[in-house]
Design a protein that fits this description.
Helix content is 40%, strand content 17%. By secondary structure, it is of the alpha/beta class. It has a 5-stranded mixed beta sheet with strand order 1-3-2-4-5, sandwiched between helices. α3 links the parallel β2 and β3. α3 crosses α6.
Length: 161
């Protein structure tokens, strides 16, 4: 696809279009085909799209799975507990879709528990539970305030062996 401003005229809209690029906003079949095609394109390329970062997972018995700004709080909590000798680590989800099923599954096979702090009612915690066989402990908070590190640390202390 040419870059904007490099001699080609591009039309970019959120409207449904057919296989030839013509707008078809009133045809449900065209819309369904477009959505399916885009969805499959993303799923076929999931290995190139999915990004995660791991911290201290080699010897961890319990791990935090976090994303967004909650990942900073989670990592702070993990680092503090590592200083106290606790075997905790963290997996940061940089992309949520496609969901990193393999990373979650692999981590769930290595640790005893996963703690999932998130600023909602536990949507990602539910997804994590689908792909692992260990205990998943959600920390959901939907009051609009950032989850404090001590809340994550308290949970980790409670569930670490």
């Amino acid at each position: 696809m040419p870059a904007f401003g490099e001699g080609e005229r591009l039309s970019v809209t959120g409207s449904t279009h057919d296989a030839y690029g013509y707008r078809k906003t009133d045809d449900p079949e065209v819309h369904a085909r477009l959505v399916q095609r885009i969805n499959q394109k993303i799923l076929r390329n999931r290995s190139a799209i999915i990004e995660t970062e791991d911290y201290f997972l080699k010897d961890s018995e319990v791990a935090v799975i976090a994303y967004g700004f909650t990942a900073r709080t989670g990592l702070y909590a993990v680092k503090k507990l590592r200083e106290d000798g606790m075997k905790v680590g963290m997996l940061r989800l940089k992309t949520l879709w496609p969901f990193p099923e393999d990373a979650i599954r692999n981590l769930g096979e290595k640790v005893k528990r996963l703690v999932v702090p998130e600023m909602n009612l536990g949507q990602i915690g539910g997804e994590v539970q689908k792909y692992c066989c260990c205990d998943v402990i959600p920390i959901g908070q939907a009051n609009g305030e950032i989850i404090p590190p001590d809340k994550i640390q308290e949970t980790l202390r409670r569930v670490c062996p």
